[in-house]
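explain this chain.
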Amino acid sequence: MKIFLLLILAIGCGRQGTHKLYKIEKDAMTKFVNQKSMPQEVNTSLDKLIVNNSYPIEIALYKDNSFYYNLANLGDGRGTWDHSGGKIKLKAKRTLFNMYIDIHGSDETAENLTIQFTDRFGANTLKMMNINL
């Protein structure tokens, strides 16, 4: 049993990588936020997105503190976000679980972003790409 637990911890911790995380100042985060309320039909080809194609995940933040997400294996959905403690915190309710994602800067100037979350495999940290900025 101990070996099984160590294996699970090693797999979960191994997915985090060695990403250094930085605070995002409120002024720096506005470039990632669509300056409109979330529309009924989100157009990911026009709106600002942060994306990781390997996981894959797409996230669009909106001025009204709402966000849209699309995950290949889970589908899409909506939630809310706020800026607190130098990071952007996302929350969304799903049928089987609540989703929590923290967004950090990948560099000191927050030109790029990194997300942290926990999925069924454990803790995960992903560097994101910026689209339509």
The beta strands are 33-34, 49-52, 57-62, 66-71, 75-84, 87-93, 98-105, 113-119, 122-127, 129-131. Residues 1-15 have pLDDT under 50 and may be disordered.
